[in-house]
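ok trying this again, last paste got cut off
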Amino acid sequence: QPAGFGRGRNGLDNWGIAALLGLLQLRFKPEPTLGG
């Protein structure tokens, strides 16, 4: 099992998760002003 392939999958998964979290935050904004 080539390590590069595994690392690539992990990178894509992480990017997908980050994108989903960003979209969820944009769609569902519990607080109009975030300290971050």
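PB: full thing came through this time. The mean pLDDT is 70.
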